[in-house]
Amino acid sequence: MSNQLKNDRFLRALLRQPVDMTPVWMMRQAGRYLPEYRATREKAGDFITLCQTPELACEVTLQPLARYPLDAAILFSDILTIPDAMGLGLELIESVGPRFKKPVGSKAEIENLPMPDPEDDLGYVMDAVRLIRKELDNSVPLIGFAGSPWTLATYMIEGGSSRDFSKIKTLLYSEPETLHLLLGHVATAVANYLNGQIHAGAQAIMIFDTWGGALSGPAYREFSLAYMQQIQDKLDREYEGDRIPIILFSKGAGLWIEDIAATGCDAMGIDWSQDLGEVRAKVGANVALQGNMDPAVLRASKAAIRSEVGRILASYGEGSGHVFNLGHGITPDIDPKHAGVFIDSVHELSKPYHTH
Amino acid sequence: MSNQLKNDRFLRALLRQPVDMTPVWMMRQAGRYLPEYRATREKAGDFITLCQTPELACEVTLQPLARYPLDAAILFSDILTIPDAMGLGLELIESVGPRFKKPVGSKAEIENLPMPDPEDDLGYVMDAVRLIRKELDNSVPLIGFAGSPWTLATYMIEGGSSRDFSKIKTLLYSEPETLHLLLGHVATAVANYLNGQIHAGAQAIMIFDTWGGALSGPAYREFSLAYMQQIQDKLDREYEGDRIPIILFSKGAGLWIEDIAATGCDAMGIDWSQDLGEVRAKVGANVALQGNMDPAVLRASKAAIRSEVGRILASYGEGSGHVFNLGHGITPDIDPKHAGVFIDSVHELSKPYHTH
């Protein structure tokens, strides 16, 4: 499929193959900063309905691509679809965030969790992937995604967002085997779900480990990275003749980049605390890097945005292996024109780094 | 003064001089996890009154020392005393956190900020230091502290706690000179304040940079570390014949430890994401290290606490230069007995590392 793509810059950069300019997309690019997104969300009524209606999920996925020359689309969905499919009862409460009606905690509750089937229980996601692929018509590749088992488990045990992860860390240090039971179950569910997305048409996969950075080094390796490795080992990394690159992104994991690279992933998400040039020197021979501008820069002047894009391109240096992105999702307060300046600056300023 | 101390293990470890066992204290050791603290706070009426009444601040400072064989006391106060003394109007709102009635943002507002005098405007802190030193009667050393200019500026500009620091980062990327103006003013105020504490009797100084880790590397160096360096260069590092060690603690700054060590500080606070042994290998010849157990471990079993203490001691290895601490403040939900197990475990398990 990918060799029919009109723009395969993103996939080529993930595989460290030559490109004409650095590809760029933005985490949460289909989001509230776009007035057309807010209109569709209003039409849907609420966020969960928007995720669960393939036609609407497809519509918002494509919106930023109509505005900007982005090099990839990313499935519009939420990382919490999997625990929801396990029966935890997802609610999204305005200005509070996600909440589960039935969080888990005991060994018995964990043992009783069902194993969702991608097509039977999460068919709305698979349908959205198929529909988006059809509508994209091979213009740019589609990224599928899921949350990491550790990150999903924080919501499943805390019952929602958390500041200090008190319940899950108590479990981690008091009953590590119970937590391992949960993480193993979630890892299998995530692997099935991502393979479902690949079979439905996702051309690259990203695993979001938003909360891995809240752990100590040994705990990160044992309770977060090990389960991303399990998933990766189960994924169809070749599908219908195409290579499906995998991007792992643990936010706040700058101290553990060698460990992440050693999993054999194709690329790593890099947050803005890290220096791309230093990361490349350490692991760039083995993996591509995706990142890493602080999304706060998009609130500054257009000149400041260009300058920061230039600094980051220079830090990575010449050649392929870099997918430009923000270090975290774009926030709702950003002026869409500033996002446009960001994307254009990446393309324009990166050309001199790809002349060989 | 320090040579009259009954227990100078903490100061010796900060200066990397031999000790009989690893000294230990806990960030926020005078805090809500202690029933006697909650009683004094109720007597005071509110948190700000507790900070501003030297007798009560002294009382709570000493409470954990009556319970546990801690190797240091830390002044009970708040990092926001300085912006409050600049007229921003500190309020503490239950379950929301600190708020300023008059946050700053414009160049004119920043230029009009007064420069607090430690004795005239923050005399209640200086009085607390003098009273605590008297009551401690040279049993253990007293740590004075302040927030870093960057961290204080986040509260002064955002008006309170923040998730993504949108206002201050907009200023940083749009009007860096305005932010530098504020940071320079705050740095002078912090230096004056800390020298005031030293003259009143503080025997070591810690600078808390709670939010430095929210920045990119170049922004961290320019907007946070540079101002901690300014302060350090102005501090009286010898006072009445005693060396006053300085500890810098930027949470989430694990990628920049060489930069922090290069400031010439005596010691660095280390959060739990870092491996003490690795940090020691990089910078341990020049600075002492303070940390770094995840406070969440205190919620686990006593056996788990001992095991984690043992792991961290082994990671640092033999010899002096390590002050044991948590990687962040102890939380209100901790059983005081568990804190006791932590402290005793450090003393007991560290002896074999100090036999030479």
CATH topology of chain A: TIM Barrel
Q: DSSP helix count of chain A?
A: 16
Oligomer: homodimer
Kindly provide the name of the CATH class of chain A.
Alpha Beta
Structural class category of chain A: alpha/beta
Order of helices and strands of chain A: HHHHEHEEHHHEHHHEHEEEHEHEHEH
Distance between the termini of chain A: 27 Å
The largest inter-chain interface, given as chain pair and residues per side, is: A-B, 34 and 34 residues
How many domains of chain A? The number is 1
Number of strands of chain A: 11
Query: How much helical structure, as a percent, in the residues of chain A?
Result: 40-55%
Residue ranges of chain A: pLDDT <50 for 5 or more in a row? none
- Largest beta sheet of chain A: what is the strand line-up? 1-4-5-8-9-10-11
Known CATH architecture of chain A: Alpha-Beta Barrel
